[in-house]
């Protein structure tokens, strides 16, 4: 199979730009996965949690048969940070998210907080996209974490309290696969006891880890067998050793060689098969249907969607909103009508007053006319009196009286 070209892509500010010296090794994976997943395109996001120096970066390089070229992290970081690197593989994308400074602080109990916040932030981003009126989930880069590889220190003494606290905090948020790191540092007999002790402690503390599903007939046998090997004891290496005519990933010691992909040496191959081949789809599905669903329900309840049925709540909210709009519209209409009435009343009043004023003016003009006519007659009369005799004066006076009365306009 041809190597898949890998283009590292920046997804967030905290991210480092990576140059790959090799290729991401899907060619080391079974064809079935490559054909099925790469053809359809997939998004798979892995979270690695574990103390600095436990071999997280080395294991990722070994799993994907490449060199992600991450520089080793120092042990003196004041806080835990999460660094995500996304690699685009044709139609698919792989994100590796690494905890930096985990367990390095004096107060180790708080180490999980940054991880919880990070996981929630990815759920929140997805939820916000889902809640958009115009959703574009097709183009959306899903950054929700599908699996958490929890690296356990190979002490042989059981889990540390930070391990239990952290896994307990995360078990409702992500599929947890616990793995024993640097398993070459622990003897074969010790390893079996260590595995049972870890499982017992997880059980006693009610930590729910991811179980490979056994309900699908085609994988039930292999999955139930694999469930009994958890936690996988893994070895990683960036070194290659020639064994026979094959070059293999291995760690060399004065007393012998540990081969990463040799199943009698460690559980590396089991982890790779389960993680990237057999159960990748199940982990993606559980992330959405179980962990995200829980987050979504909690958040929607916080937002005020109290009903179980989103549709129902949505309809209720919608009709309440419409009723409110209607009420506002009615109020505005009423106010408009009231204003119109007030304006009309004022106009009517103004009109009546104007009419009254004009009426008075008319009456005054008429009165003035009468007065004018009266004076005119009077003047005329006195003028005649000067020229006429006394008997005639009387006659004229009487006549004028009659004349003025008949000429007076009816008011
Ligand atoms: N013995 C042993 N050493 C390992 C293994 N994996 C990594 N190392 C070594 O542990 C050191 C830290 O590894 P690294 O991958 O940088 O750890 P990280 O800080 O968890 O990313 C390096 O020197 C690795 O060579 C392993 O499986 N077994
Ligand atoms: Mg590292």
From TrEMBL:
The keyword Acyltransferase does not apply. SUPFAM superfamilies: P-loop containing nucleoside triphosphate hydrolases. Gene3D superfamilies: P-loop containing nucleotide triphosphate hydrolases. It holds the Pfam family Septin. Signal peptide: none annotated. InterPro entries: G_SEPTIN_dom, P-loop_NTPase, Septin. Residues 40-302 form the Septin-type G domain. PROSITE patterns: G_SEPTIN. GO terms for molecular function: GTP binding. Residues 311-375 form a coiled coil. Keywords: Coiled coil, GTP-binding, Nucleotide-binding. The keyword Cell division does not apply. Belongs to the TRAFAC class TrmE-Era-EngA-EngB-Septin-like GTPase superfamily. Septin GTPase family. PANTHER family: SEPTIN (PTHR18884). This is Septin. It comes from Leptidea sinapis.
